[in-house]
Amino acid sequence: MLGGHPTKTSFERTLKTALRWNPRRREIMRDLLALMAAVDGPRLEILSQEHANALRTADPASGYKYLDVALYTLQKLLLAHELGLEGGLPRRVLDIGTGGGHFPFVCQFFGHQVVGIDIDNELYKGIAACLGIQRTIVRVTPLALLPNLGQKFDLITACDVTFNDKDDRDGRRVYWTLAEWAFLLDDLFAHHLEYPGTLYLKLNKEWQRGFFGSDRLFFNRELLAMAARKGAVISRRRGIIKFSLASRHEIR
């Protein structure tokens, strides 16, 4: 795991191992080292110390994991390369559920203009400050339009989001319905995406009833199927939905 404050030698060694089979590993290593040099290290160290006790007892899936800035910046750097953001003209990017701002951090490094939206959270606010990122406080609510953000975007991303996780009901997790997802997609297509444009979603797994009666974690198969019917390229294995649209008329 890439730690928050490794020595340069151990950092580069770990990075080489993580990218061993990536054909663009040298370029990605160069970019990540440059990004890490731009992090406010002393501020991040103070933030990490403030949360040291919570870090020791927190669930590994909790938000405290995002204090590992190197690891999550690497993940977003790989996403930026997947989306072709490392080259070309500057784009306007909307990142929904931006968390600590790791993806806007990478996008700005490549010269793009980014708006990252999420709920108010002091930990994420602190991480974003270490990255020089300004978060915009917007709550994504089912069957409610997103506010006017002052512009439309060439690329909209929403990765590993939890806004679709409602609550527990009768001991089981409850998630957004297909109708609630369709409402959000229609809102993004109609009011926030500039054409030609790209909408990229990376789902979290949800607790769903398995074939043998027990609950298991799956990507939302009905949502993936609905997106495919609307014209998205999907990955059932990775939980990816990607719309690449020349015009709104291409949406089925």
TrEMBL record:
Superkingdom, taxonomy of origin: Bacteria
Cite the Gene3D superfamilies for this sequence: Vaccinia Virus protein VP39 (3.40.50.150)
Spell out the InterPro entries in the cross-references.
SAM-dependent_MTases_sf
Q: Provide the protein name.
A: Methyltransferase domain-containing protein
What organism does the UniProt record list as the source?
Answer: Reyranella soli
At the highest ranks, the source species' classification is: Bacteria, Pseudomonadati, Pseudomonadota, Alphaproteobacteria, Hyphomicrobiales
